[in-house]
Specification:
By secondary structure, the protein is α/β, with parallel strands linked by helices. The chain folds into three domains: 1-84 and 280-307, NAD(P)-binding Rossmann-like Domain (Rossmann fold, 3-Layer(aba) Sandwich), CATH 3.40.50; 86-271, Rossmann fold, CATH 3.40.50.720; 310-393, ACT domain (Alpha-Beta Plaits). Helix content is 32%, strand content 20%. The protein contains 14 helices and 16 strands. The strands form three sheets. The protein has a seven-stranded parallel β-sheet, sandwiched between helices. Strands 2-1-3-4-5 form a five-stranded parallel β-sheet. Strand 6 (141-145), helix 6 (149-160) and strand 7 form a beta-alpha-beta unit. Helix 3 (86-102) packs across helix 6. It is elongated and about 90 Å long.
Length: 393
């Protein structure tokens, strides 16, 4: 029976780690020469990643702390847990909507500053409350930029609260589109959402195209009483532009999950300490999902929810399997199958899928694959990684 070594870089919920059965899996923070790495927030960019690593699992959605491009060049899939913390983030966005609508944070700060021994305490409360009058959510328009797992849940909840929802997502998947409530109005641009919404919430990944998506130019079209929410990624918003727009009276308030020294003293900013996925349930869901994906990859070669690989799953039809990651270029399958044929291997079943520049192939053969054949496949130009995965007995 094969054994696997798992390096854990952060605290991962026990509900996930318990799915790695002993003694088949050695799991720990000091594991050397690991077969896989489990991580949450640890920055792996400056880390020496061992040549034995075959998979990396991020117990969360974002993978900015992982050198994904470098791993792709090495043929290593990087898994994440999309949707596992979606409800937790949705609930925090709902809380932020209410905080922004009813001015709850400045109201709390006002009460906290009142001297408790003042003889006119109640009078001060009554006199001060007029400064914190807010608005109700029904019939207000919520603009959602990004309609994936979190954005879809936020849209559904907002509609139940009586809000109008205007959404924009040029990269929406078919599954996400099917899940989206039919009464979400579709916008044609980010600017359209910003211009027509009372509240705007961001739910896009941090990519080169989304970095500083909300900049000075786009902030100019906001309503003056608009509230901007960012519970996605810090750099999606140009912080300096947001501060300048707030100070210039361009919009009402900015609520986010990303505190910084620059935001600290700004009266119309509410910055929470990265609470988006900080619930017991979200951490457990992420851990379970990513552990199952890493285990399926190690034991069967199957790929689900890798940010840099296509999804590839194939039921076992043989005790002998080969998994190959390669550049998505012509004649790769021909060269792989020819190499196997020369070695006298009969291909029982094969599946090959591609995603961008990456392709991935699973091959079940009728007899054991010698190491020299693995070496010959690895030597084919464009092959990034290859390994034999015998069935467990």
């Amino acid at each position: 029976m094969s054994t696997y070594r798992i390096l854990v870089l952060n605290q991962i919920a026990a509900q996930g780690l318990d799915r790695l059965p002993k003694p088949r899996y050695e799991v720990g923070k000091n594991v050397a020469q690991p077969d896989a790495i489990l991580v949450r927030s640890h920055d792996m960019h400056a880390m020496a990643i061992a040549p034995t690593v075959k998979a990396i699992g991020r117990a969360g959605a974002g993978t900015n702390n992982i050198p994904v491009a470098e791993m792709s060049k090495r043929g290593i899939p990087v898994f994440n847990a999309p949707g596992a913390n979606a409800n937790a983030v949705k609930e925090l966005v709902l809380a932020a909507l209410l905080m922004g609508a009813r001015n709850l944070v400045p109201a709390l700060q006002f009460v906290a500053r009142l001297p408790p021994d003042a003889t006119d305490f109640e009078a001060r409360v009554e006199a001060g409350k007029k400064d914190f009058a807010g608005v109700e959510l029904p019939q207000r328009t919520l603009g959602i930029i990004g309609l994936g797992a979190v954005g879809g849940l936020v849209a559904e909840t907002a509609l139940k609260l009586g809000m109008k929802v205007l959404g924009f997502d040029p990269e929406i998947t078919v599954d996400a589109a099917w899940r989206l409530p039919s009464n979400v109005r579709k916008a044609n641009s980010v600017e359209e959402v910003l211009r027509h919404s009372d509240f705007i919430t961001l739910h896009v990944p941090l990519l080169p195209v989304t970095r500083h998506m909300i900049d000075a130019r786009r902030l100019e079209v906001l309503k003056r009483d608009a509230v901007l929410l960012n519970f996605a990624r810090e750099a999606i918003v140009d912080e300096e532009a947001v501060l300048a727009a707030l100070r210039g009276g361009r919009f009402k308030a900015y609520l986010c999950d990303f505190p910084s020294p620059r935001l600290q003293a700004e009266a119309r900013v509410v910055a929470l300490p990265h609470l988006g996925a900080s619930t017991v349930e979200a951490e457990e869901n992420c851990a379970v999902m990513v552990v199952d994906q890493v285990r399926a990859c190690l034991e069967q070669g199957n790929i689900t929810n890798a940010v840099n690989f296509p999804n590839v799953e194939m039921a076992r039809e043989s005790a002998f399997r080969v998994a190959i990651a390669n550049a998505n270029v012509p004649n790769m399958l021909g060269q792989i199958s020819t190499t196997m044929a020369r070695a006298g291997l009969n291909i029982h079943n094969m599946v090959n899928k591609s995603r961008g520049e990456m392709a991935y192939t699973l091959v079940d053969v009728d007899s054991a694959v010698e190491q020299k054949v693995i070496a010959e496949i690895a030597a084919i130009e464009g092959v990034l990684s290859v390994r034999s995965i015998p069935a467990e007995t």
